[in-house]
Amino acid sequence: MSWTFSKRHSLLATVLAASSWLMAGVAPAQAKETVDIGLNVSWPGFSFLEVARQKGLAEEYDLNLTIFEDPLGGHAALAAGQIDVYLSTAEYTPFTIARDTDVALVSMLNISYGVDKVVMTKDLGSEELKGRKVAAPQAYIGEILAGMWLDSIGLSPDDVNWVNLNADEAVGPAMSGDLAAAYMYEPWVTRVLDNIDEAKVVADTRQPRYLNTGIFMDAMYMNTEFIKNRRTAAKDMIKARFEGVQYWHENTDEVNQLFADYLQWSKADVESVVGTNGKYLEDGLYMLDFNEVARICGALDGDPPHGIENGSMADSVKLTNEWWVKLGLMDEVYDPEAGYDCSLTRELADEGFRQSISAN
Fold first, then answer.
1. Which residues of the chain have pLDDT under 50?
2. Which of 40, 311, 355, 360 has the most CB atoms less than 10 A away?
């Protein structure tokens, strides 16, 4: 019995030793670092990190994307640390300053190159517009555009009856004649113009009055604790986003179909926003490359496109803040530098990351 036990013990030891030797050459699978990413609405311009996810452009990370369909809800989730990165429009930055939230704008993404519009459903003069319903989503890019348009025709926000509607929500009331004017973007603009004979575009962001302000842009925000505690991941998310843009530039038709599948849009609707040349679409978006964004941040020499000045982040945040005061949503103008952080972009530029793309 003693001999049998010893023999079995010896055999077990040999098996375990062999197993240990075999396993020593096999590295355990490493869990990927998860980054939680929010998109404020279903929108191609916000979806390039989905390209990075599907095409393996950020292999060290598990990119967990959520479409909120609620811009303010997404900002609340970012401020609470429920998500790490948020793709949205840039005009929210003054509110993050006023509320002292743990949020920073870290990168511009693209310029609204005519995709954002104000559509009038009837041919009305300024005096006839008074007291009529004008729709725009509150505290969102559309409210500023509609406010600037009213200002251009001699009206103030108090002269009209504001209705808080997103672009897709305004289509029905516009069709029924309940709205005199509404902020919209594609594909909703075309649907209204095709169905209302009197409807016309009265303002769009490709017009110099709006384009040259440099405030009508999409942007990437991050939770400041994410930046502080996971700085490498934060930089990698900016880089992955622009590598997604590069992949789109080189494979535009493929990625436009990817966007269509992901957003559950038609491919034609996607192309009505981002075009087919891998850079811009008139009446759509102008996709910034990394070098252009770095110039907006003042991290690289040279002029950004469309009359935007080098290092103009502070000016654009300040101008946005001034419009929120005019529109009655804010009471004062804050230090704009409290709302953005160009250090990640600057570090990427200092490390040699470059990207310059033009239309195919």
1. 1-27
2. 40
